[in-house]
C-alpha cells in the first residue's frame, strides 16, 4: 500500500481499534483462477503474537477455504470512514485557488498466512465469541445456546474456520492532516454538515488529523 509518511499510522493499538470498530474485512486470496475478495466479519485476538491474530468462518460451499488450505498468504483490508473532499471546503481555495478535490479515508491492511480449520471445538468457540461480541450491546442479547443444539450442530457442519496470525499490519489515515489548519476546519465542518453520514470523518479530521497536522 502506498503510504506517504504524513498518512502512515504504525501505532498498533490504533490499528487494532479500527479493526474492532469495523470488523467486516475484505479477505483477498490468490488462487488458481486468480484473485478473490470475500467480505467476512473477523475477530481480533490482540494479544496473540507480535501483531495479533484474526479469526473468521465461511460457508463450506465457499471455495476460499480450500484455496487457503494450510498456509496460503492472504491480505485482509479493514475500511473505516471515507468520503469525497471538495475544494470548496478549503480556505486555501478562497486565498489562492490552488486546490483540487481529494478523498479522505482510514483503513488497515493485514498480511499473514492463513489456515483453514475444520475442528468442531474451534468452530464452536469462534461462533460463540463472534456472537457474544456483537450481541453484547443489545438489551436482550441472543446466544448460540438459545437455538436448539441439533440445529446449531447442523449449521456448524456447513462452515469452516479460518485463522490468520498477523505477520504484517499497515495503517493509513488520510484525513486532511497534510492541509493547513483553516482547511482542516473547513473539511470537518463540511463533513459534519452531511449529517450522520459524515460525522465519523468529521471526527477523524478534528481529533486525529489536527493532532498530526
Question: How would you sum up this structure, described in words?
Answer:
By secondary structure, the protein is α+β, with helices and mostly antiparallel strands. Helix content is 33%, strand content 35%. Strands 1, 2, 3, 4, 5, 6, 7 and 8 form an eight-stranded antiparallel beta sheet that branches. A hairpin with a 7-residue loop joins strand 4 and strand 5. Helix 6 packs antiparallel against helix 7. The two termini are 22 Å apart. The model has no long low-confidence stretch (mean pLDDT 94).
Briefly, what is this?
This protein has 7 helices and 8 strands. The chain has helices spanning 12-21, 64-68, 91-95, 120-135, 149-156, 181-192, 196-209; strands spanning 8-9, 24-31, 34-41, 43-45, 53-59, 72-85, 102-117, 159-174.
Strand content is: 25-35%
Radius of gyration (Å):
20 Å
The tally of beta strands, per DSSP, is: 8
Largest sheet: 8 strands, antiparallel
Q: How helix-rich are the residues, as a percent range?
A: 25-40%
What tags apply to this protein structure?
213 residues; alpha+beta; eight-stranded antiparallel sheet; 35% strand
Summarize the helices and strands and which ones pair or pack.
Elements: E1 8-9, H1 12-21, E2 24-31, E3 34-41, E4 43-45, E5 53-59, H2 64-68, E6 72-85, H3 91-95, E7 102-117, H4 120-135, H5 149-156, E8 159-174, H6 181-192, H7 196-209
Antiparallel strand pairs: 1-8, 2-3, 2-6, 4-5, 5-8, 6-7, 7-8
Helix pairs in contact: 6-7
